[in-house]
């Protein structure tokens, strides 16, 4: 027995209960006991058999489960056996992880010990199957089950292309040993069910799902559709999907016609990346402008285009929508239903006389018109001219003009007679109206002309309530005329004395109040032929009136600003919003009115850079303030050439030439140029004032410097000072250098004259030229002997 006990200890220390039981019973031979002892001991060792437990004390119950370990794939079955000793009741109760009979998560075990692995892999991936003795619940034994799977998931189709907004069915394939759960869950780029950016996916029955591509191509354009096994979430399969844009870069409508001033919505079609925006332009101008029309976004992919008020020079226009590097365009043809009527539709006008025409423009917010005579913009001296109403001399409109214009007949009957006066809509120059004008002249008969053709007159009793008109009769030896005044509009306005009075010499006296309409014809009728007459138009105004502008004309190309003065009546003195304002082409300028008869502003070089006719008016404060008569300000082309009439004792007469005299800018009362005294400058800056002309003597040889002092208004050493030659032609044989003189009178200039033996003798005139090419002259100032 001692040897047997030692053997038992060597078999297993854990089997002491079994060996103790066998020894205690001492059944059979020693050899048999040894074999049984070894068998029982071996059962408890790994790989030998099952596990066991027993209650303690005499007659203890022992439970053994075989096999003690098992490795199973999901859904597989393993039969376990329970052996009971120590009791006649050999029945047991089976459980898995302490759950009687197990469950779907850890697997199930039958009453007979058949264990079935779950369809999904639990965590941890091992479970314990236990048998508990029914006779003694304290006696039990367990077996360990390791769960595993070899699941492989595939998704088909793979590498497909789906259009934006399109759909694709994907199917998951699962291969595995055993019977794992076959369900899958679906994600797009790791997002359960996907989203609007990468696309969405929903189950479609069985192991398939429906994928719907997003409305816009994502970035990047390829996404992954993934099916993940519900049996083992670490096992999944992928399919790559490329999202392609099926839309073409376009704008709807791609071409259309829009009337002036109307609006239209345009929609762009792009495959926009998330967050991308569309930029809109018209003819390459971001947002457009009033000339070509404006466009503003009114949605993610739409914009509202507003047509301009006028047909642009380039028609149609192009609308662009740009998203990143993609661009789409639409063509817009601008149309109009504008109507233009010129009234009167026909007229007969004597040479050098005027008639008024009115352009009525319908279906347009811009009611201004461009006028022409026989196709010539604003006409010409040959076919007749278009004048700003009331301008005298005739001033052509500098811009499209609304309402009426004056037509001034040419000085002689043109070769093409009648002529056509046309008003074209500024909004749509293709729409126009015309009037026919017959020019009558003295050939074969009498003609009468009245000047001025237009005048503004104050009501009687006020200053400037009279206007002198002159009549010229041609084609008759009798120059006499009969004067009368009547309303310029037949059937309307004044009658009799209410139109004013004209005496036999053409002096018109205004009535006490203006008629309505405010237009009075002052008529001169030939006494030789009462059917021949001419008229001028007078308007009565108690508002501001312009009599004189200083200067009235300038030469183009000034490099310095200069003062500009308006003289007249009924101005409101002061400055700012409470005083009168000078308007230049309708634009208000900063103005100071020192009195009710004088207002001044400044003209800038930019105002007179090129030849033009500017319209000058004065507007009194108020809303709207009263406007004066319009007066033209002429900017003539730049020309510094000089014309000379030369006479000699042998040729005392010269043929006359036509001179265009431009009034210098320095004619403004605030900035004149003149010379009031001259003299010789001697040492110590002494100016010896002398009488004109100063006499200088040429040296017999070489040259000498003669210093003069001159004093006047507005003189400056930066001006150019030159002397004419004795013949009156521009000089060149006397060099002149100007300097400022300090310590003497203000505006006194030193002129150093270089006189040589070759300087011609004779009288000289001094010309002073400003940087603006304005000139003043001091005649007979110098004599060279």
Shape: elongated
| Structural class based on helices, strands and sheet pairing | mainly beta
Indicate the mean pLDDT: 84
Low-confidence segments: 1-49
Helix count equals: 3
Number of E strands: 71
Main β sheet profile: 6 strands, mixed
Distance between the termini: 173 Å
Fraction of residues in H or I helices: under 10%
Strand composition percent:
over 45%
Rounded to an integer, what's the Rg over CA atoms? 58 Å
Tell me about this structure.
- It is a single chain.
- The protein is mostly beta strands.
- It has three helices and 71 strands.
- Helix 1 (2-11) runs antiparallel to helix 2, helix 1 (2-11) packs parallel to helix 3 (30-43) and helix 2 packs antiparallel against helix 3.
- It starts with a helix and ends with a strand.
- 37% of the residues are buried.
């Amino acid at each position: 027995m001692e040897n047997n006990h030692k053997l038992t200890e060597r078999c297993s220390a854990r089997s002491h209960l079994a060996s103790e039981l066998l020894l205690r019973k001492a059944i059979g031979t020693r050899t048999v006991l040894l074999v049984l002892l070894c068998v029982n001991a071996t059962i408890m060792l790994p790989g030998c058999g099952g596990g066991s437990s027993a209650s303690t004390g005499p007659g203890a119950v022992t439970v053994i489960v075989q096999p003690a370990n098992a490795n199973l794939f999901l859904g597989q079955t393993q039969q376990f056996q329970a052996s009971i000793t120590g009791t006649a009741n050999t029945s047991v109760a089976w459980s898995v992880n302490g759950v009687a009979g197990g469950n779907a998560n850890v697997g199930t075990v039958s009453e007979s010990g058949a264990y079935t692995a779950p369809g999904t892999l639990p965590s941890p991936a091992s479970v314990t199957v236990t048998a508990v003795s029914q006779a003694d619940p304290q006696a039990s034994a367990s077996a360990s089950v390791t769960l595993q799977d070899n699941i492989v998931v595939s998704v088909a189709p793979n590498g497909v292309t789906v259009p934006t907004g399109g759909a694709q069915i994907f199917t998951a394939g699962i291969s595995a040993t055993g019977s794992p759960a076959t369900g899958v869950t679906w994600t797009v780029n790791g997002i359960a069910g996907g989203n609007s950016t990468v696309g969405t996916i929903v189950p479609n029955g069985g192991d398939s799902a429906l994928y719907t591509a997003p409305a816009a191509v994502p970035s990047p354009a390829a996404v992954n559709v993934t099916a993940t096994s519900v049996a083992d979430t670490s096992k999944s399969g992928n399919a790559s999907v490329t999202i392609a844009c099926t839309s073409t870069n376009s704008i709807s409508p791609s071409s259309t016609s829009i009337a002036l001033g109307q609006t239209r919505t345009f929609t762009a079609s792009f495959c926009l990346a998330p967050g991308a925006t569309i930029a809109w332009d018209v003819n390459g101008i971001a947002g457009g402008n009033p000339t070509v029309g404006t466009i503003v976004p009114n949605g993610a992919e739409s914009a509202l285009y507003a047509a301009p008020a006028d047909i642009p020079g380039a028609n149609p226009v192009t609308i662009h929508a740009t998203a990143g590097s993609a661009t789409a365009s639409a063509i817009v043809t601008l149309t109009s239903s504008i109507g233009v009527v010129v009234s009167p539709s026909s007229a007969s006008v004597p040479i050098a006389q005027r008639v008024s025409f009115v352009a009525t423009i319908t279906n347009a917010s811009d009611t201004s018109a461009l006028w022409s005579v026989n196709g010539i913009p604003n006409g010409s001296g040959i076919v007749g001219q278009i004048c700003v109403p009331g301008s005298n001399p005739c001033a052509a409109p500098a811009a499209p003009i609304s309402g009426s214009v004056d037509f001034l007949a040419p000085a002689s009957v043109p070769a093409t007679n009648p002529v056509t006066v046309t008003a074209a809509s500024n909004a749509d120059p293709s729409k126009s109206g015309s009037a026919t004008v017959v020019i009558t002249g003295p050939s074969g008969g009498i003609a009468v002309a009245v000047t001025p053709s237009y005048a503004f007159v104050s009501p009687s009793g006020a200053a400037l309530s009279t206007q002198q008109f002159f009549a010229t009769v041609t084609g008759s030896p009798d120059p006499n005329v009969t004067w009368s005044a009547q309303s310029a509009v037949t059937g309307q306005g004044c009658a009799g004395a209410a139109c004013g009075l004209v005496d036999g010499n053409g002096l018109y006296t205004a009535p006490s109040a203006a008629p309505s309409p405010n237009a009075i014809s002052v008529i001169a009728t030939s006494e030789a032929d009462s059917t021949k007459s001419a008229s001028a138009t007078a308007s009565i105004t108690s508002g501001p009136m312009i009599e004189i502008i200083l200067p009235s004309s300038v030469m183009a190309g000034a490099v310095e600003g200069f003062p500009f003065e308006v003289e007249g009546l009924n101005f409101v003195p002061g400055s700012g919003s409470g005083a009168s304002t000078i308007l230049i082409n309708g634009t208000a300028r900063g103005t100071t009115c020192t009195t009710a008869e004088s207002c001044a502003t400044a003209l800038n070089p930019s105002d007179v850079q090129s030849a033009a006719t500017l319209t000058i008016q004065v507007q009194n404060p108020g809303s709207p303030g009263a406007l004066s008569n319009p007066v033209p300000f002429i900017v003539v082309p730049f020309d510094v050439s000089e014309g000379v009439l030369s006479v000699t004792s042998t040729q005392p007469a010269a043929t006359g030439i036509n001179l265009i005299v431009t009034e210098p800018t320095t004619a403004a009362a605030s900035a004149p140029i003149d010379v009031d005294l001259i003299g010789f400058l001697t040492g110590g800056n002494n100016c010896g004032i002398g009488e004109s002309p100063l006499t200088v003597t040429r040296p017999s040889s070489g040259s000498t410097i003669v210093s003069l002092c001159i004093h006047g208004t507005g003189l400056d050493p930066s001006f150019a000072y030159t002397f004419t030659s004795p013949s009156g032609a521009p000089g060149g044989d006397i060099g002149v250098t100007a300097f400022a003189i300090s310590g003497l009178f203000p505006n006194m200039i030193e002129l150093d004259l270089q006189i040589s033996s070759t300087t011609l003798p004779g009288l000289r005139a001094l010309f002073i030229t400003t940087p603006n090419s304005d000139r003043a002259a001091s005649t007979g100032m110098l004599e060279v002997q």
